[in-house]
Design goal:
The protein is of the alpha/beta class. Helix content is 54%, strand content 16%.
């Protein structure tokens, strides 16, 4: 028992040291002028594109695959698009460092809402009045870290953010600090279903990403996404229905220094409460809306993820795209 306590103390000290070191090293970067910080981030992202061969290959191959399916223009340059995706991720990385140290103030005047703002305000008012939860779902587009914080600040609600832990204690600690920077809460996706349901049943607001492959999840089913079948997680939709929560898709994009938030109409029930047919139809609608947004802004989405991988494909080849 004493040995376990000793090991736990050592891990805690090591974690504190690493987080403190990362915080100190990134502090000067947070105070770069925005044009310089964004240029530095973009250059770093492009460098990663050239150095990280595996993710570069996945991103380019995914774009080519979707082009072949007819969901992207035939003349779209897959390599150039993938390179810009990495540049945007680098820009977002610098912005997240800036937010970590300086909060939301440097970004607020560059953030803007597109569409359905009044509808979301009405849904939030209904949620507070009836004690009915609200689930906001999104994808890996634009700077989702900054914009989710802006969303909560703009509409004045407490955000419960769901995320997948990486398995690296220091990185998970930093991510949790970022996501709770303005008083929001973080819920680990793995093993967090009970906490998520409690949030929704209390009338809270929860946010989660929905655009990753779910081959290890029993709730995953194959549905169309950008012209190809992709294993899609029904868990968020099923959880929302079980908790009587409304579902709203929110997506982000950047244009230079500016960030745009698009709010989609609330997802309507498409079948008897909790029926598999209804859940499939609702998940398909979310895939369709997300896919349409990606088609408009292909350099904004994280193509480096193996979104179309399947259980059978991974069994044959762990690095398979499908």
């Amino acid at each position: 028992m004493e040995e376990k306590k000793h090991q736990a103390r050592l891990r805690s000290r090591r974690l504190t040291l690493i987080v403190g070191l990362v915080t100190a090293l990134t502090w000067p970067l947070a105070w770069l002028p925005a044009p310089l910080g964004l240029a530095w981030g973009a250059a770093g992202g492009r460098l990663v594109f050239y150095l990280w061969a595996r993710r570069r290959r996945i991103a380019v191959a995914n774009i080519e695959m979707v082009k072949e399916a007819g969901s992207l223009p035939a003349d779209l340059n897959a390599r150039a698009t993938a390179r810009e995706v990495f540049a945007n991720l680098g820009r977002g990385g610098w912005e997240t460092i800036c937010f970590y140290h300086r909060g939301l103030k440097p970004f607020e005047k560059y953030c803007q809402v597109e569409g359905e703002r009044e509808k979301l305000e009405a849904l939030l008012a209904e949620s507070r009045r009836e004690g009915r939860g609200l689930m906001l779902v999104t994808g890996h587009m634009g700077n989702w870290e900054i914009m989710s914080q802006y969303l909560a600040r703009l509409f004045g609600f407490h955000f419960n953010v769901v995320g997948q832990k990486s398995g690296h204690d220091w990185l998970d600690a930093l991510v949790e600090r970022i996501r709770t920077r303005l008083g929001n809460d973080f819920i680990a996706k793995s093993g967090g279903a009970r906490d998520m349901l409690m949030v929704l049943k209390r009338g809270g607001v929860m946010g989660t990403l929905i655009d990753q492959a779910a081959i290890g999840d029993s709730a995953g089913v194959s549905l169309p996404f950008l012209g190809r079948e992709a294993v899609t997680n029904l868990g968020p939709v099923r959880l929302a229905r079980h908790g009587r929560a409304r579902i709203v898709l929110i997506l982000f994009r950047r244009a230079g220094r500016r960030h745009y938030l698009t709010i989609f109409p609330p997802l309507e029930d498409k079948g008897p409460d909790g029926s598999q047919e209804g859940l499939l139809a609702e998940a398909r609608q979310l895939n369709d809306w997300l896919g349409e947004h990606i088609q408009k802004y292909p350099d904004q989405w994280m193509w480096g993820h193996r979104r179309w991988k399947t259980r059978a494909g991974v069994h044959r080849d762990p690095d398979s795209l499908i």
